[in-house]
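Re: that chain you flagged

S.,

Sorry for the slow reply, it's been a week of failed gels. I finally had a moment to sit down with the sequence you sent. For the record, here it is as I used it:
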Amino acid sequence: MYRTNPLYWPFLFVIDVLGGIFFFWLRFMPFQEPQRILVLRLEMIGDVVLTTPMLAALRRRFRHAKISIAVRPSAAPALAKNKDVDEVIKLQPPHFGGRGSWLALFRLANKPYDLVIEPHGDPRNILVAFLAGNLVWGFGSRGLGFLLNRKGVDRGHTIAKLLQLVGGGSTATKWCAFDDQIAKKLPKKYVVFAPETTKPEKEWKDSQWQELAKKIKLPIIITGQKQQLSIPKAVNLVGKTSLPQLASVLKRATVVVSVDAGTAHMAHAAGAPLITLFGPENPKEWGYSDDRSIVVRHPSMGMTPTVVGQKIRQLLKAR
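Prediction finished late last night. Pasting the structure tokens below so you have them in one place:
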């Protein structure tokens, strides 16, 4: 099954069958120790954070290789000071940008990489990876999988399937860049509210956040870039932090309550106790299940302010 609109499935199937016939030889290319590796991770910041265990696994397996990763400019701070990466290439995907991005992408494709990894399964990125690398590893669940030399199984948790693709490793995510300038001025104990997401279907209503605030005795810190939330006496940091500053705020938090978005992945990588509010996405693919993380599903599965308040108290007792 393809992970895209079912209307496209017949077309993708025909393309993949024909491509599999003409490019069958790619599966039999010999593997040689790569000296130059490129990871194409052109999605959001949360996706980049979820890729850090795979980067660590690549560093352990190919100690002498130069590892580069191409990310959106907005996601580049997620890799600052990360010693598993030698080069961060800032690249706005052309399918979201203009002529300059297309030129940058084609320049990337002309560099001689020994191995290119495309973790998302985007056919546009797979094509670039095919042009840029001698070998290409990735997932073909959205089409053009016949261009891959190694095709991973696109199911299960995102971290686990990425590690399976490169041969295994630790599932611990990593965030290395912190700036305490703002965090050191906050109370010793506090709860972070992170309500912002780019997808409306993942949002929690303002009234629900406000009701949850009434159930919390600790100071509340509100984070984000644009989305404002009106809660009396809360410290409003919306639009006032860089990503390293936000990471420090999250790291020092007593509990972080976040919608299913990049801030949740940042908080987990920073080591904060985390409650993630999931809407339509599958937490078995994107969530965390360790002893400092709790997933709460949409209202039909119990995601109410009362239930979230209970989960906060549960994490507080565990500390």
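What I noticed first: The radius of gyration is 21 Å.

Talk soon,
D.
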